[in-house]
Amino acid sequence: MTETKKVLVAEDSSVIINLTKNVLMFEKYSITAVKNGKQVMEKLENEDFDLILMDINMPVMDGIECTKAIRGLSDKKKSTVPIIAITGNYKNYTLDDFKKAGLNDYVQKPLDYDKLLATVKKHLS
To answer: Which residues form the Response regulatory domain (predicted)?
Structure first.
């Protein structure tokens, strides 16, 4: 029996959080959801995650700023966790911009949940 993978979903839309949770929990992932980057950093102080789904446009601390903060952490496990951007305005960013910020991948909104699941599985295998 493999251990349950822990996924942190950082997203300010409750609708997207609920849909994402339903899709990922069907695959037996353990899901924690927060609404902004500051809450991501607070969660990471006390917990380890196997992957983070990071909305780019969030209040308080956006996804790019939060990803850079995570990559700067001294804890190697936390600073190297795979981070997948979730973005509706991907046209404002190139894949290169995401990589420079430290993001491993991205999925665009409106979310294609098959693609989201495939992307999550790719980074968790």
So the answer is: 6-124
Distance CA 118, CA 108 (A): 13
Q: Distances in Å between the alpha carbon of 51 and those of 15, 43, 91, 92?
A: 20, 13, 24, 24
Q: pTM of the predicted model, to two decimals?
A: 0.93
Distance CA 75, CA 94 (A): 28
> Domains of the chain (ranges plus CATH)?
6-124 (3.40.50.2300)
Query: 20 — phi, psi (to 5°)?
Result: -65, -45
pLDDT one-digit tens code per residue, 43-79: 999 999 999 999 999 999 999 999 999 999 999 999 9
Is residue 96 within 8 Å of 106, Cβ to Cβ? no
- The secondary structure of 60-81 as a DSSP string is SS-HHHHHHHHHT-S-HHHHT-
Nearest Cα to Cα of residue 84 among 59, 44, 121: 121
